[in-house]
């Protein structure tokens, strides 16, 4: 009697323990290595490094810039542009919370919030900028992913390997270069022929 109680307790304990031991990354981090997370403890900036470049390759820093043409620049969505092509950076660092990518406002943008929404294949990584909200509506689709072991990569929709930098077709800034997820020739927001594949690395921000 006593022995079987101990035995059943042991079974119960191991039944509880096994799922924890075998836990796999899930959600936006599904398929990536242990340590990949939708909520890294650090803040960061993003940099686009040519795909296939070595671990120490320096990339092109990415910042928020105006997105696809709306009726006016102010009515447009926002995207991640190379800092070199956009020319300034008013959102000095980014946080990732439960898979939502949240650029943080600098002093000039105080009181505003940048919130990502869903990123479909062929689209730029899109944000809306509105007054700061305590419980904003965002798409929880990003992961700080460990792919190679030597750097942390941004993944969207469980995919870190399909980002590209493409020349935008926006009319208000010439030669703006934007981050696109899985570019295709049908999207009129950028010139497909200019797209070059990149990985997007998270660079811890300690400023
Ligand atoms: C990251 O940024 C958030 C929001 O600005 C801030 O509250 C937090 O202290 C920062 N975390 C670290 C580790 O610097
Ligand atoms: C990359 O940088 C690290 C640290 O500075 C260094 O130890 C390593 O040898 C470098 N790797 C390459 C491929 O240059
Ligand atoms: C794409 O943008 C880059 C950087 O602004 C520029 O140097 C290049 O000429 C552009 N390419 C085309 C085909 O417009």
UniProtKB/TrEMBL annotation:
The protein's UniProt keywords, in alphabetical order, are: Signal
Signal peptide: which range, if any? 1-17
Domain of life assignment: Eukaryota
What is the official name of this protein in its record? Uncharacterized protein
Highest lineage ranks of the organism? Eukaryota, Fungi, Dikarya, Basidiomycota, Agaricomycotina
């Amino acid at each position: 009697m006593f022995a079987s109680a101990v035995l059943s307790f042991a079974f119960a304990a191991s039944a509880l323990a096994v799922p924890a031991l075998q836990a796999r990354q899930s959600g936006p981090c599904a398929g990536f290595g242990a340590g990949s997370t939708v909520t890294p403890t650090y803040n960061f900036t993003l940099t686009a490094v040519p795909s296939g470049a070595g671990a120490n390759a320096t990339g092109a820093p990415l910042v928020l810039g105006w997105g696809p043409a709306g009726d006016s620049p102010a009515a447009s969505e926002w995207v991640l542009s190379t800092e070199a092509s956009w020319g300034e950076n008013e959102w000095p660092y980014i946080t990732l919370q439960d898979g939502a990518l949240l650029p943080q406002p600098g002093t000039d943008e105080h009181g505003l919030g940048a919130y990502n929404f869903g990123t479909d294949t062929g689209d730029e990584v899109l944000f809306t900028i509105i007054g700061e909200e305590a419980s904003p509506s965002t798409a929880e689709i990003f992961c700080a992913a460990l792919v190679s072991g030597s750097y942390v990569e941004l993944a969207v929709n469980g995919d870190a390997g399909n980002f590209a930098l493409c020349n935008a077709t926006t009319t208000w800034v010439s030669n703006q270069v934007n981050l696109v997820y899985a570019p295709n020739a049908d999207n009129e927001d950028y010139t497909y022929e200019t797209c070059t594949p990149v990985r997007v690395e998270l660079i811890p921000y300690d400023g």
